[in-house]
Design goal:
This is TetR family transcriptional regulator. By secondary structure, the protein is mainly alpha-helical. It contains 13 helices and no strands.
């Protein structure tokens, strides 16, 4: 009696994608340092050796996840570049913020990138050393593009003020990308693009409010009548 044939493994590309999806979800839920290669292999339903064969180690797998979503970062940077061209218009700041916010929230609501959005939120909050190369390659250019667009929309603001604006914006977006208790308390209430529009308005309004005193004081000499300025110097 012939021996039974071993079960057929899925095609190579399917196995690689299964490993990436499993790792992405586990890293997002538990963090890079906690997850093991064995857990990833079990979640992907592939032999343990295949993870090392395709990705060498856990760090290589982590970098592959970010590379897999690299096209999303490029699309977001193109949107920011387009918004930067219109940054001098009356609604320039809102357009810049919206160009940053909308792509990221789309990632969160898309099944193909939802776990990646949560992973990104986790790493933005507290990056692991192993994640640093991937963040430098794929995330830092996006943040730099956003900072440059903010500079174009707020030419009177200092670099330090713009850095604060970036931190405030990033904190608000991060709260929407990651797992949040409100998702369980108010299920289904985060509806993209409505939430993206509201969040963009919230961030842009907050930036204006925080930077308004500094920007106004920088403009004060130009707004003060010449005679009054002369009187102030005497």
């Amino acid at each position: 009696m012939p021996s039974p044939r071993p079960p057929q493994l899925p095609p190579r590309s399917d196995r690689q994608q299964a490993i990436l999806r499993a790792a992405e979800q586990l890293f997002a839920q538990r963090g890079f340092s906690v997850v093991t290669i064995r857990q990833i292999a079990e979640a992907a339903d592939v032999p343990l050796a295949l993870v090392g064969y395709y990705f060498h180690n856990k760090e290589g797998l982590f970098r592959a996840i970010f590379a897999h979503h690299g096209h999303r970062h490029h699309e977001a940077m193109r949107a920011l570049e387009e918004a930067r061209r219109h940054a001098g218009e009356p609604d320039g700041l809102h357009r810049v913020v919206e160009a940053f916010v909308q792509p990221l929230l789309r990632w969160r609501s898309d099944n193909a990138s939802a776990h990646y959005a949560r992973l990104l939120a986790r790493e933005l909050a507290q990056a692991t050393p192993e994640a640093e190369p991937a963040l430098q390659q794929h995330v830092d250019p996006l943040l730099q593009r956003f900072l440059d667009a903010l500079q174009a929309a707020l030419p009177k603001a200092s670099r330090a003020e713009l850095a604060d604006a970036l931190r405030f914006a990033l904190g608000a977006v991060q709260a929407h990308l990651g797992e949040h208790r409100l998702d369980r308390v108010l299920p289904g209430q985060c509806v993209e693009p409505v939430t993206a529009q509201r969040l963009s308005g919230f961030i842009a309004g907050g930036i204006r409010a925080v930077l308004a005193p500094t920007v106004s004081s920088a403009l004060a000499p130009a707004l003060t009548p010449p005679r009054a300025r002369l009187h102030e110097r005497t």
